[in-house]
Amino acid sequence: MAAGFEKKQTDKTRPRIFRTAAITAAFIAGILLISSAGIKIYDLVRRTEERKIASEFGIYDPADAGGHSLNVVTYGNENGHTIVFLSGLGIEDMCITYRDMTDILAGENRIVFIDRAGYGLSDDSLTPMTVKQIVDEYRKALDNSGIKGPVILAAHSLGGVYATYWESVYPGDVEAVVLFDSTQLEEETFPKGKPENKHSLPEILLNKTGLYRLSIAGVSADLPANADLQDEEAAQAMSYLMSTSSLWNFAMDSEYDLIRDNCKTTWDSIVTNDIPKIYICASWASETEQKYIDARNNILIPYLQKMGNCELKLLPGSHLIYEQRPEECADLIKELIKKI
Prior knowledge:
Layout: H1 2-56, E1 62-64, E2 69-76, E3 81-86, H2 94-97, H3 99-105, E4 109-114, H4 131-144, E5 151-156, H5 159-169, E6 174-180, H6 201-209, H7 232-245, H8 250-257, H9 259-269, E7 277-281, H10 290-307, E8 310-314, H11 321-324, H12 326-338
Parallel strand pairs: 3-4, 3-5, 5-6, 6-7, 7-8
Antiparallel strand pairs: 1-2, 2-4
Helix pairs in contact: 3-12, 4-5, 5-9
């Protein structure tokens, strides 16, 4: 009898244990769901505030690129030539860091900074970032911003790949091209591999859920009253805003993955033409180190010859030559404009 009684008690207790466990699990899940929703709402509020601040500083003006928006920042003389700047890989704050150079040009030309998907304050995108996709999005965003061609393309580093494809496939859009130490294309660019993809899926999820927001400071409290981009502190704050806004996203992840393919597609798409071009060579500009002389002769010059009508300008310095030697870069652009 005692054994039977104990069995009945055990049978009655087991459902209670299951119910308690289920209630506890549901409670924990509810807490996690509410916390996740709260964190995401905080993230969205912060993003909205950042875009408002950026708009007040004149560095946020979204334009539809076909399902998502790209940030298209313009300033300068609308009656002059339109110079469209394309950033290198991972440069999210182009509209801030190029200013020492572009301010020299803005008196006589319209300056346009356009960030591709996943950069700065441009939207992210799940569409694979092929060179064709990137250039088509650039063109749509410019058109929807009311910016008509032909334009001067001014591209740094990997941006030069997109500029080369653009002027070859859509030559009617382009009146001149400036390449700042851009990727030196050849039959097999990056033959030993491609730049490491630094965005992991967990990092992207941290961004998309808003969790990474908990670890970075906002910028509004750091801004001096009545500041503009001529104020160094304000410019640094805006640079920080743009760089942290675009951390870890799908579009940039795709761009990393497709670098080698995009270089190959662009190389195969090059059409020799008479559009005036200059290539400002910084990192390979040494006239004494044989390895750089060989690199220019064996890789860079054949690339420029394939494009056609491209003048090589040696300007020794860092890869970010537009920051290191902005006056000289601006002067070279002015020389090119005179030839148009």
